[in-house]
TrEMBL record:
One of its GO terms (cellular component) is Golgi cisterna membrane. The gene is LOC112246976. This is Gamma-secretase subunit PEN-2. Keywords: Membrane, Notch signaling pathway, Transmembrane, Transmembrane helix. The chain crosses the membrane at residues 20-39, 60-81. It is a multi-pass membrane protein. It comes from the Eukaryota. Belongs to the PEN-2 family. The keyword Membrane applies. GO terms for biological process: Notch receptor processing; Notch signaling pathway. It is found in: Golgi apparatus, Golgi stack membrane. Its main location: Golgi. It comes from Oncorhynchus tshawytscha. The keyword Membrane applies.
Length: 101
């Protein structure tokens, strides 16, 4: 998508949609929001909607980093303790590996 062709109001609307879409357990939308709108928020000359876009970009970046931290923590804990959890670990597994690591 070429953001240069969009008017500033539509840029703000699109940025807002991606920001709120990330709350639907879709943190990838926050990453896309940061990548697409970083230049608009921090590099381009000032315009009226830029302050709101900047806020959405900062919050999207923070939300994405938080999701990465939580997901990494969960994966690490699960991989380390799955065998010790017994049946609960097996029920949480998509595939049940054979043996104990």
């Amino acid at each position: 998508m070429n953001l240069e062709r969009l008017p500033n109001e539509e840029k703000l609307t699109l940025c807002r949609k991606y920001y709120f879409g990330g709350f639907a357990f879709l943190p990838f939308l926050w990453l896309v929001n940061v990548v697409w709108f970083f230049k608009e928020a921090f590099v381009e000359p000032t315009y009226t909607e830029q302050l709101q876009i900047k806020t959405y970009v900062k919050r999207s970046g923070l939300g994405f980093l938080l999701w990465v931290a939580v997901l990494t923590t969960w994966i690490t804990i699960f991989q380390h303790f799955r065998a010790e959890w017994g049946e609960v670990g097996d029920y949480l597994s998509f595939t049940i590996p054979l043996g104990i690591p």
